[in-house]
């Protein structure tokens, strides 16, 4: 399951034991002493399991597909392998890009079938052609096809390490092979065979394996030349060599955890082999020529790699997970974050990508909501400006009336655009292109009407109840509205220039605005002591009755617009007098309780920029005096 080569100690079969009994070097009959019991011998299997049932079938499958021998599962093997082994073989060939999703040979697979070597190593050679590093990869591929020529006898380990230290590369064991090859080739040019053998012994190298390495390299080189491939004359870079090698070793990549342990593909845990040149530095990402399980699971013949290479080499083998899709005003497109994994290893944790082509339907919805419902879009089109202004106007009515049942909800606005914008539009660029043509046919296609945005309740909110300007002592003051309980701007705010503050009385502002006056009177009546309040029930009816008797604030129409004008008396004085008449007894002016902030005018002092803000004009005046009395710096 983990694609790991295991090297445990296993018991040989009875047939192998009997065969070895006859190969003891005897020249006549004798006695064979076995180092295990007769019971153990009898419990062993009679024959060794066929190799086809024990090793990877990738090479076999590759040749069968190349020869068009039909379905692998239907082939009449003498010893048929189980389905799992066949599937594992196809999995490896898929990893090497040798077969497609339908288990048919790809062009790479056809080329691999012509190379009489392990498919992994063959894949490296094919990639080396593209990376222009055939010279180096042929040497490494030949080395990986034989048993390691370096020897390390138990009684001379330190001597062997010292003699071979000159070959070690601390970033790549594959480059160690290149150094070893260059050493042997250079000396083979001028040394006799005996001297070359002696040199190999001095450096703890197997002369026979070095010759085998040469022979395999020679055969591969001939094969490459016959194919018409050109071997590079310029030395390849580290990146080129290792990107080529990576194509055959994608299943053997690993990531360094916080401990000395590595996390490999398919969630296996492994360690760097102590004999590796990388053992001391322990790089973050590695690839290994093989994973071998002895007392531990070790990565052997390893190299440091850049994780960016993996995604490019692995291609469709990578899994892409997308999260947090969102609208981006600046780029006018829907973006998301991407996580890229291969065999459970995270290659990219969080990368921003254009989400439109990935999920057009969801991107279209996010585009409409972000660009048009929320208005987060730099659009110069007439409809957009019109809709924005209309939306703001109706939203202002909600702030003025302190109601949230005037503006339609976002879903209705979304439905308006969703019904008109084509299904394949999910970004600003495509929208602008479509809009240019659509407006030529229907100029008002995307124009919202007042009825589209406003619920019927909004028709009751008028400019007479909530004017935008106040006229007091011949001076105009702007009024702004904000509906957010607890916020410092909640209610009605009047902007007063600092220089005019001492010229206007505070008491007219008690009348606030006509649209809030009834609520204010109701609230004031409810602050009366219980003994008095009993005479003013039901309070809302009494408030409306009182309001009918008052000389109320009025909104006048002038050339410059609509203006609010206050009565000359304060609201408290008028309301106190009304209560006196209703009760027949005097009512103290200080009997009234505290009001909520939104029923008190909010004074904002302006001196080129905001200076101070308070619900109490007297405090604002104190701020003014403090400002003007402040010492002038010399």
From TrEMBL:
Pfam families linked: DUF3418 (PF11898), HA2_C (PF21010), OB_NTP_bind (PF07717), WHD_HA2 (PF04408)
One Gene Ontology molecular-function label: ATP binding
Domain Helicase-associated: 88-178
InterPro entries assigned to the protein according to its UniProt record, in alphabetical order: DEAD-box_helicase_OB_fold, HA2_WH, Helicase-assoc_dom, HrpA_C, P-loop_NTPase, RNA_helicase_HrpA
Membrane spanning residue stretches: none
Statement: the UniProt record of this protein carries the keyword Nucleotide-binding: yes
Keyword Hydrolase in record: yes
Gene3D superfamilies reported for this sequence: 1.20.120.1080, P-loop containing nucleotide triphosphate hydrolases (3.40.50.300)
Keywords: ATP-binding, Helicase, Hydrolase, Nucleotide-binding
Cleavable signal peptide: none
Listed NCBIfam families: DEAH_box_HrpA (TIGR01967)
Protein name, per record: ATP-dependent helicase HrpA
